[in-house]
Amino acid sequence: MHTLNKQDILTYLIGANDNELFERANKVKRQVFGDEIYLRAIIEFSNVCNKKCHYCGLRAPNGAITRYRMRDTTILNAAAMATYRGAGTIVLQSGDDFSYSTQALGKIIRDIKDRHDVAVTLSLGDRGLDEYAYWRDCGADRCLLKLETTDPRQYKRLRDGEDFSARLHRVEFLQNLGYEVGSGIIVGLPDSDIISALRDILFITDLDLAMIAAGPFVPHPQTPLANAMPGNISLSHRVTALLRILNPSANIPATSALSALDSECRELALLRGCNVLMPSMTPEEHRADYNIYPGKNQSDTNVSDSLTLAKANIRSLGLVPSTSKGFSPRSHNVYESTSRSATGHSSRRKTECGQVIAD
Ligand code: SAH
Ligand code: SF4
Prior knowledge:
Oligomer: single chain
Distance between the termini: 16 Å
Strand content: 15-25%
Shape: globular
Bound molecules: S-adenosyl-L-homocysteine, iron/sulfur cluster
Number of strands: 12
CATH superfamily: Aldolase class I
CATH class: Alpha Beta
Structural class: alpha/beta
């Protein structure tokens, strides 16, 4: 049985034994998912946002980007194209844009589910809990809502006054609604260090998530963090590798923030514990305007070939692109047994893959 205690995690985080860490993460990933890499087609249907996150180019005060909102027919056409090209999951993502009503989004979800045999993931930010409940009834399968950082003070600072506990409550509420829930962090935000990465890894692991996203911070020139240092790519790979070892059956994407910093390192993450790619299937005319950070969607050249390109990249690594819906075995309790801790967060002793967090 393998164990990872806090000291082991810290030792790996400083890069003291990268080869061993990445091999270990790859082995765990292969035990659970084999050679398969799940494809999620992401449709970024609006870049309008009412929030002011200091790290993000879509923040409301940024007057330098061209804003767009896709109509429902355009969203449905993009979803049809994505499924035709073999995506098993459609991710609907946007800024926190409340101009799409609960019912309008519900109809889009229902239409996609009626027309295609796909899973639907929502990444819509801080919409109401009642709205998320309604969309679950409309057939949405998953939600993605990142904590971004697990330090409440940093959260408040970087999300311009927002409340960390409200975000956390939302994540846990979504889990209780029966969604497969993904959350995660941005690696290398200003004022973070190895100790904060350790805290993030432990906190995120304790949430029992079906999906975990952790990608590097990419400074955006039209934000208050324009002059901050970018996140470190190796550290980001270490964080996802550790998250894989601690969360064997969670879906963990190789994020596009990696390829924004270096064209090769998103694919490399697939050999270091990640098992998901999320190519953009946003119509070409809008793709460049979904400018969360510079270089976003750069590698997804055009609508017709971003999924095909992702598949080719996966094959070139000797891996197998999967067109399945790609649910996490965790949501069916195949690999892990779970229990709730006294803190209200889940606490687990992972039995089948033999990973245990010790103090
Ligand atoms: N508005 C929604 C979804 C869109 S933002 C929300 O905030 O939840 C999607 C993700 O982009 C965020 O969760 C954040 O992790 C990521 N992001 C934003 N700006 C970034 C940056 N500069 N570098 C890396 N990731 C960033
Ligand atoms: Fe809006 Fe999401 Fe960007 Fe924050 S991270 S500004 S909520 S799009």
